[in-house]
Amino acid sequence: MCREEAAELSSLKPQLDELGIPLYAVVKEDVGTEVKNFRPYFQGEVFLDEKRRFYGPRERKLGLLAFLRVGVWMNGVRAFRNGFVGNVLGEGFVLGGVFVIGQRQQGILLEHREIEFGDKVNIEDVLQAVRKMPQELQSLEKK
């Protein structure tokens, strides 16, 4: 389901480029060709965080009981119907998220943490947060 969200975020790439805002992904592992297989869905730079420092001092996980949640199944069916098939290798229980991080003292402009697998960020919220970034950052990134 992360591939579906990666593709949706990548659909913003032309607008982000126009604003001079980079698009990054942080992944926790690269089992087999996992990151290589992810790249076609994500049009930004991908960073591997094997030590999981970006995930914070307390990783947020859902255990096997997550597969009893109706929302998880609905999200999985939605992703499958949209042509996204994930992998079943690796750890698989850490919840993801999307952050829009501003310059210097701006801090986090948008924080979306998955509540359950496939709980995607609202793309309009991402654009709204990006537009809060100061123009000087946008022009610096263009250089």
Structure description:
This protein has one domain (1-132): Glutaredoxin (3-Layer(aba) Sandwich). The N and C termini lie far apart (34 Å). A two-stranded parallel sheet has the order 1-2. Strands 3-4 form a two-stranded antiparallel sheet. Strand 3 (97-101) and strand 4 form a beta hairpin. The protein has six helices and four strands; from the N terminus they run ααβαβαββαα. It is globular, with a radius of gyration of 16 Å. The chain has helices at 2-10, 13-19, 34-38, 70-81, 123-130, 135-142; strands at 24-27, 45-48, 97-101, 108-113. Keywords: Antioxidant, Cytoplasm, Redox-active center. It comes from Maylandia zebra. It is found in: Cytoplasm.
Quaternary status of these chains? single chain
Shape: globular
Say what the CATH topology is.
Glutaredoxin
Number of helices: 6
- What is the makeup of the main sheet? 2 strands, parallel
The proportion of strand residues reads 5-15%
For the residues shown, what is the average pLDDT?
Answer: 79
The separation of the N and C termini measures: 34 Å
Major sheet strand order: 1-2
- Based on the structure given, which CATH architecture is correct? 3-Layer(aba) Sandwich
Give the CATH level 1 class.
Alpha Beta
Number of spatially distinct domains? 1
Structural class: alpha+beta
- Tell me the series of helices and strands, N- to C-terminal: HHEHEHEEHH
Number of beta-strand segments: 4
Low-confidence stretches: none
| Radius of gyration from CA coordinates | 16 Å
Fraction of helical residues: 25-40%
